[in-house]
Specification:
Elements: H1 5-14, H2 24-43, H3 50-57, H4 63-111, H5 119-133, H6 137-142, H7 157-168, H8 171-187
Length: about 200
């Protein structure tokens, strides 16, 4: 299959909504579409004049109504896009924080000898502790909830940043609750598959 430059230009058309200035995205889109249509026509041995290309790529509808709609819709669209970016960032931070907390819980359970024999009990204790005590680091940071700093086992910048996320994510109370659950497990005999 030969290289298709039209495909590359179509991808460029696809990112025109990212142009930050109102109406400029439409002008850039129309310009790219004119080039695509002209190239396709040339491949068929036909040359499209400017008037034909303007007809094929021009914006249809009432210009005044389009301007009014654009002025109203543009800020709303930008606001919605910003909200989506912020929520996506929040989700990423929440996932990192929870992963740190759960990883430390697994490390603690391994050190205390509860894994692999009590995997189901450890998982249940993890879930309960995370559900009751862990939360969004960003929300907790804004509420000024952090408490003691978490120091992970490495002293590099990434570990410090992750430790800060975990701190604001509720690392200390979640680990305390998890440790209490592990201590309670130590008091219970380990059931084998044949016992109930």
């Amino acid at each position: 299959m030969k290289d298709d430059p039209v495909s590359q230009q179509v991808l460029a058309v696809g990112i025109t909504p990212l142009v930050p200035l109102p109406f400029l995205d439409g002008l850039v889109r129309a310009r790219l579409l004119r080039e695509i249509y002209a190239r396709i026509a040339k491949g068929h041995g036909i040359t499209l004049d400017d008037e034909t290309l303007k007809t094929l790529t021009g914006v249809r509808g009432n210009l005044l109504l389009g301007c009014i709609f654009g002025v109203i819709w543009y800020p709303i669209r930008k606001l919605l896009r910003t909200i989506i970016y912020v929520l996506t960032l929040k989700e990423c931070v929440d996932v990192v924080s929870e992963a740190v907390i759960r990883s430390e819980m697994v490390r603690r359970a391994l050190e205390d000898g509860h894994l692999p024999a009590r995997a189901e009990e450890v998982r249940q204790a993890m879930d309960v502790a995370v559900k009751r005590h862990a939360g969004s680091p960003l929300v907790n940071f804004l509420r000024r909830r952090g408490g003691l700093r978490v120091h992970l086992h490495r002293d590099d910048k990434v570990a410090k940043a992750v430790g800060t996320l975990a701190t604001y994510g509720g690392f200390i109370p979640a680990m305390d609750a998890f440790s209490t659950s592990l201590e309670a497990m130590e008091l219970q005999p380990l059931l084998t598959d044949g016992e109930e």
